[in-house]
Specification:
Elements lengths: L1 E5 L3 H14 L3 H4 L3 E5 L5 H8 L9 E6 L1 H4 L17 H4 L1 H7 L6 E7 L7 H6 L3 E5 L5 H15 L7 H11 L3 H15 L6 H7 L3 H14 L3 H13 L4 H23 L4 H8 L4 H13 L2 H20 L5 H15 L5
Parallel strand pairs: 1-4, 1-5, 2-3, 3-4
Helix pairs in contact: 3-6, 8-9, 8-10, 9-11, 12-13, 12-14, 13-18, 14-16, 14-17, 17-18
Length: 339
C-alpha cells in the first residue's frame, strides 16, 4: 500500500503518519521493520531493496521516505525547465516511480512532503495507486474549530470560550505544533473548568516567541501566504522589526553552517550539538530548509537582510513594517534554490 502525505501543515502530516503506524498493529513488532529514508539521496535500487525485504516476525514492513516528491518538483516557472541542460523531472522520476508502483503486498510505503504542487511529475505518476492526503495550513475559522475539538478531546467535559479561542489564534497563529502544546497545558491548568481569556494570558506566556520562529520558518520555506499574516501578528503584539531581522539572519546562518557540516560528513547528532539545537523539531526544520537552499542563494538572502536593515535604519520607505513586507515578498518570489 502506498500513502502520500503532503502539505504545509506539518503537524497534521505527522498525525496522519502516526495513524498509519497504529493501523499496522503491535508497535514493538513494527519498530524493527520500519525504515526511514532521505528522499533527496535515495536511489531506485536502494528503495527497491528496502521495500522488498521481507518483514521479520511481522505481517508488515513500514518504509517512510521524506522529501522524495520535492526532489522532482519542477524548478522553472509554471513547471517548465529553465534550461535544456537541466534534466526533465518527468523523465528523471520514472525509474523510482516504477519501484513505487510495484510494491510487495507486505510493504506500506509512506511518502512525506511539504509544499508539493499538483504539477509534480512523480505525484502525477503514482497518484493512481496511492492514498493521497493533502494538509494545507488551516484558515482562521478552521483553526478555531480545531482548537475547540482539541480541547474537547483531552478531558471529557473540557471546553473553551470563544474569546479564549480568538486570543489563542491571535497569539499562536496556525502552527499546530505550538497550538497543540498550548491547548494541552491549558486543559491541565484549568482542571475541567471552562478555559477563559485570563487562562490563556496566564499560560501562553511565550507564545510571542513561538510566533517569531513560525514566521521565520514560513519565510525560509517561501510560504508568503503564511509569513505575511504571522508578521502582522508580531507587529500587533509589539515586536520590533530589528529583532525580526536578527532572528531571520540567525536562521540563515544556521542553515549555512548546517550545509557546510553536512558536506564535510558530520553526523546529524554532531551537527545538532555543534549548532546548539536542543529541540528535535527545530533541527528537522533546519535540515529540510538546508536541502532547499544552495550556498549562493543563502548569500543572496543574507544580503537582502542587510539591505533591509539599512533601509529600516535610514528610513528609506518611511515604515519599518513596510520594509519587512517588501522583504518577505522578494524572498518568496525568488524561492529557495538559486542555480
Amino acid at each position: 500500500m502506498l500513502h502520500v502525505l503532503i502539505g504545509e501543515d506539518d503537524f497534521s502530516v505527522r498525525q496522519a503518519l502516526e495513524a498509519i503506524k497504529k493501523s499496522l498493529g503491535d508497535p514493538a513488532a513494527l519498530m524493527p521493520n520500519t525504515t526511514v529514508l532521505e528522499g533527496g539521496k535515495v536511489t531506485p535500487e536502494q528503495l527497491r531493496a528496502v521495500c522488498e525485504t521481507v518483514p521479520f516476525l511481522a505481517d508488515k514492513r513500514l518504509v517512510i521516505v521524506e522529501g522524495l516528491l520535492e526532489k522532482f518538483q519542477p524548478k522553472g516557472k509554471n513547471g517548465k525547465k529553465k534550461s535544456s541542460r537541466q534534466p526533465d523531472p518527468a523523465e528523471a522520476c520514472r525509474p523510482i516511480a516504477a519501484v513505487i508502483k510495484n510494491l510487495p503486498h507486505f510493504t506500506e510505503l509512506v511518502l512525506l512532503g511539504g509544499g508539493v504542487k499538483a504539477i509534480n511529475p512523480l505525484l502525477r505518476e503514482i497518484s493512481s495507486v496511492a492514498k493521497v492526503k493533502n494538509f494545507p495550513m488551516l484558515k482562521p475559522g478552521e483553526l478555531s474549530r480545531w482548537i475547540e475539538q482539541r480541547v474537547a478531546s483531552q478531558v471529557k467535559g473540557s471546553r473553551i470560550s470563544k474569546q479564549a479561542v480568538d486570543l489563542m489564534v491571535r497569539l499562536v497563529g496556525n502552527d499546530l505544533w505550538t497550538m497543540a502544546n498550548e491547548v494541552d497545558k491549558l486543559v491541565l491548568y484549568t482542571a475541567g473548568r471552562s478555559i477563559e481569556e485570563d487562562d490563556v494570558r496566564a499560560v501562553v506566556s511565550h507564545a510571542q516567541e513561538a510566533g517569531i520562529f513560525n514566521m521565520v520558518d514560513a519565510i525560509m520555506e517561501s510560504r508568503v501566504s503564511s509569513a505575511q499574516p504571522l508578521l502582522q501578528q508580531l507587529f500587533t503584539q509589539g515586536m520590533e522589526p530589528a529583532y525580526i531581522l536578527v532572528m531571520l539572519a540567525r536562521q540563515v546562518r544556521i542553515i549555512f553552517q548546517m550545509k557546510e557540516m553536512r558536506g564535510s560528513g558530520r553526523s546529524r547528532s554532531d551537527i545538532q550539538t555543534k549548532l546548539g539545537l536542543t529541540n528535535d523539531f527545530v533541527l528537522r526544520k533546519a535540515w529540510e530548509q538546508a536541502d532547499k537552499y544552495s550556498p549562493l542563494r543563502l548569500k543572496e538572502v543574507y544580503h537582502k537582510l542587510l539591505e533591509a536593515d539599512v533601509a529600516i535604519k535610514t528610513g528609506k520607505y518611511g515604515s519599518p513594517e513596510l520594509v519587512l513586507d517588501i522583504l518577505i515578498a522578494e524572498l518568496g518570489q525568488r524561492g529557495a534554490v538559486s542555480v
